[in-house]
Structure formats: C-alpha cells, structure tokens
Amino acid sequence: MKTLKINSKQLFIGLMMIGSTGAFFAQTSPKTDSVKVVASTTQAQTNPVIEGLKKQVEANPKDAESLAKLATAYQDATDWQNAVATWKKISVLLPDWAPSYYSQAYSYQSAKDDINAKLAYEKYIATVKPEEIEASKKNLAYAYYYIAFNEQKDNPTKAKEFIAKSIQYDPTNQEAVKLSQALNS
Fold first, then answer.
1. Which of 1, 10, 56, 102 has the fewest CB atoms within 10 Å, i.e. the most exposed one?
2. What is the reported pTM?
3. What share of the chain is helix, strand, coil (3-state, %, to 5)?
C-alpha cells in the first residue's frame, strides 16, 4: 500500500494562487453574505476545467492536489454541494490538513448551511497546528467570528469567548469589534 505524501504548505499556497478558496474570499460577514447559490444539477453548461479535473481524480482518487483543484473549481463555479463533497474527500485523505475544513466551512456558508458551516469552522480551529497559527491568524479570526455570530442568541457566553479569540487574532476586524461591543454591553 502506497503512503500518500503531500507537502500541505505547498498545496495550500498553490491553491491560493489557482483559485478563490483563499481567506480573501472567505472573509465575508455571515449576515451580509450575498453569494449566488447555483445547484450543480441546474447548471446548463459543462465546465471544461471541472470535467478535466474529474477525469484526473477518476484516474487517481487519492491525488489530493487534483482533488483540491477540483474543489476549488467547484467553488469558482458556485457549485457548493460538489465543493463540500470534494473537500470532505480531501479531509479523509488528509485529516490533519486544516485548510480543507476551512474550505468546507466556506462552501457550507456560501450554500447558506449555517449549522454545517459552524461545525466545519470548529473542526478547522481544532485542526490548526501550533506551528501554523501565525500564518492562519486571519482565517482563525474569521472562524471564531463566524461561530460567535451564530452563537450570540442561543449561547451568549460561548459567543463572548469566541469573539474575544477572533479579536485576539485580528484586532482590525471591525465587524468582530462591533459584535464584541454588542455582546458585552
């Protein structure tokens, strides 16, 4: 049995360059998210990039790099259902690779599935390794913010803890600062 070896740092950097799965695009406010959701079954045209990547994945289902490119292509096409499914496959292959959980959360959030987005952001937070924290601060800040935003009514104590963590990682996020002020007033 072959062992899957992948440099997750290089893969993540490569993904940031080839697609829109990066933190820049995921830094949307849960209350103002205006992403257009298009179900994969309603797409009239086929996407040649997706079709080519699907063939690569069919030829080697354990090729994490091709899977990540495919997941990113699904995100670019706003095909959230297939994006989530593909990111989940990556999480099975690379269970310790935190960016796959962040990307799952982003896809769930874009599909307006707040419950699963929250769970995926929680998994992302739990999976970030100590040596990756510095490079992941913006994404961690957003993940904590998203959870705090969603917990503010049902669990204000948890929301306060999470918003404090969000601000700790990114004190410049004005939405987080506003939420913190609202929670602590």
1. 1
2. 0.76
3. 70, 0, 30
